[in-house]
């Protein structure tokens, strides 16, 4: 109707376009990484770290929190869980924007192809964040912002193509099926 054409002319006049996702790459050098075993979700003392320890570590890395547990740090005294190993180079790619599920599946497929080449990584991760103040969440519930607006899931993919799927939602949200 008339409203639709008025809106269309407004948008075209003001040249409002869909935002393209923004992609940033960074290399993290000499990064302490938890040692993981795909079949040990709870971790084993002196052998591997648990899924919870990995999730916490990943949060620190993605937020660029120092992992060296300095008492002089006012920000964080967090340190990498044990056992861990130092990785000479880790690559971090961040894609910001509105990304449809099909693109996420495509990204997962491309990441899995990484293991078919003779690379040194034992595992890699793909984290998908919803916006903290997104109006929707999983299932039929509205997304409850309340405190932190948690709304994310994380794939951990291993060289043998086993994977872990971790999910985090706010206390007032429905959990996914």
From TrEMBL:
Q: Name one GO cellular component term.
A: ribonuclease MRP complex
What name does this protein carry?
RPP40 protein
Q: Which Pfam families match?
A: Ribonuc_P_40
Example GO molecular function: ribonuclease P activity
Q: Which GO terms describe its biological process?
A: endonucleolytic cleavage in ITS1 to separate SSU-rRNA from 5.8S rRNA and LSU-rRNA from tricistronic rRNA transcript (SSU-rRNA, 5.8S rRNA, LSU-rRNA); tRNA 5'-leader removal
């Amino acid at each position: 109707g008339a409203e639709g054409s008025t809106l269309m002319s407004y948008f075209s006049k003001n040249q409002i376009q869909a935002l393209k996702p923004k992609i940033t790459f960074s290399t993290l050098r000499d990064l302490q990484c938890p040692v993981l075993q795909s079949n040990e979700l709870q971790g084993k003392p002196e052998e591997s770290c648990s899924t919870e320890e990995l999730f916490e570590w990943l949060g620190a890395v993605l937020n660029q929190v120092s992992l060296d547990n300095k008492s002089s740090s006012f920000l964080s005294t967090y340190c990498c869980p044990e056992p861990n190993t130092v990785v000479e180079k880790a690559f971090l790619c961040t894609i910001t924007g509105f990304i449809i599920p099909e693109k996420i599946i495509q990204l997962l497929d491309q990441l899995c192809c990484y293991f078919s080449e003779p690379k040194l990584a034992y595992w890699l991760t793909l984290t998908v964040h919803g916006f903290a103040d997104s109006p929707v969440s999983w299932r039929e519930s509205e997304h409850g912002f309340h405190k932190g607006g948690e709304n994310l899931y994380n794939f951990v993919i291993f060289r043998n193509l086993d994977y872990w799927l971790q999910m985090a939602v706010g206390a007032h949200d429905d959990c996914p099926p």
